[in-house]
Model the fold of this input.
Amino acid sequence: MEPDRVRVIFLGGIGEVGKNMTVVEYGEDIIVVDVGLGFPEEEMLGIDLLLPDTTYLQDKKDRIRGIFITHGHEDHIGALAYLLPGLGNPPIYATRLTLGLIGVKLKEARLFDAATLIELDPDSDAAVEAGAFRVEPFRVCHSIPDAVGFGITSPAGLLVFTGDFKFDQTPVDGRQTDFAKLADLSRRRPLALISDCVHVETPGVTPSERTLEPTFERVIDAAPRRIFVATFASLISRVQQILDIAALYGRKVAPVGRSIEKNVDMAVQLGYLHPPEGTLIGQHEASYLPDDEIIYVVTGSQGEPMAVLSRIANRDHRTIQVGEGDTVVISASPIPGNETSVLRIIDNLFRQGANVIYGATDKVHVSGHASQEELKLMLNLVRPEYVVPFHGEYRHLALYARLAESVGVPPENVIRAGLGAVLEFGPGFGAVVGEVPAGHVYVDGVTIGDVSDVVIRDRQTLARDGVLFVTVTVDRQTGAVLAGPDIVSRGFVYERNAEALLGAAKGRVRDALSLNGAGDHAADWSYLNRKIKEAASAYIWEQTRRRPMILPLVVEA
Done:
């Protein structure tokens, strides 16, 4: 790295939605912006969560001066509970509510006592000195309170990270984007703006969170029985809106779901949630109230199988069932990859007689991300030399590049990077200069990183074409077939309906073994294994044009 350049390395969140993690490096000093998780795509069978690959940082732990968090959503803080010890437990800097959400996660993971949490105050002029870096938070509006972006100054120049943002003029918490700080950063001639771009396909301006309130008032007023509102566990501002409207209509609000219950308790204690007196109650107390006096705020808006809404939809919740006259509001947009799970839940709720209200039928959610005109405004406010679109899939990066060019950014100064890309910036210089290992680390149950892409491909093959177990018993001395082959099918064909097919496959395997010398020399497991696979695969493909996984089992006697 040139001595007058600062490096920006994307370990997650670029060319994808979720799993946000960015490394900023100058000399011997490193800071990290966000440590988020991602949700698996449909073809990632059995996978629960995705984490960033931190291989690049494993031999650099002692150089990490701090982790700076923009806000408290899962795709920005969710991986801390998995990755923090492996990063050497550097100090974590975040605003008060975000620290509260992080604290809940670290306590669950039994990492809280070893962590160093330091509060940022975006309303002051104070900055954090972290090695060669000077980090200044500035307030932005998002769908969660206490969100910030960062101005990061190094000897090479100033970088501006927007974080997730929109320009909401009437935010629920009353704290607007800090235009004055953005103007101040602009006066210092930023080297680069690293900008949220996931909503670049949407023209105009993203509606304010306040625009949802008429919908909620209408729904609550018309609902004859219980109301269930499913939303993100961290969406504290949405919970505040439900509390305020519930009080107007004489209803009580009960959070249900471990994560949302803990987050609500924490937000009340920190003063970020202000329930009208007597409105916020527990689930047990709610069970004694008349149906037309209760609103449940529940987890599961993304179709998570173990969340409250999924369990209710599957009639699997221990104490809550829905029925005729109940109203369910899904106040969230499905994250890409979760659409099928969410629609399945909606179908199941309708089957049970509930009236389900969701994004396709009414305005029950607005994005927390900037639309085209707000993205242009951010570009014109900051006026950077270089622009890097971030927090979006490839089409979002491409469309943002066009948008940046439309407001006067030279095409060569818009840098479209990919996962693992190493960017360098300095006076008059900005480019991708290399690549580091990056990708997905899979979380499967309680195991982290034990599942590889090869395992995922095997699961896809098993799901698509099934498996055949081919068992053969051979003489250890001569290699002669003593019994079998026997074939057992799972996920390929129903054996009773395919006796002829499997019988012929057995014959093909038996012939292949006898024709290729089995019986006149000692058994060679690798040879027999290969011949069984080749013979069975070839015959099954000829007859069915399918390629099930063939698993030979050679028994020596």
Observations:
- The radius of gyration is 28 Å.
- The chain has three domains: 6-204+367-444, 209-357, 454-556.
- DSSP finds 15 helices and 25 strands in the chain.
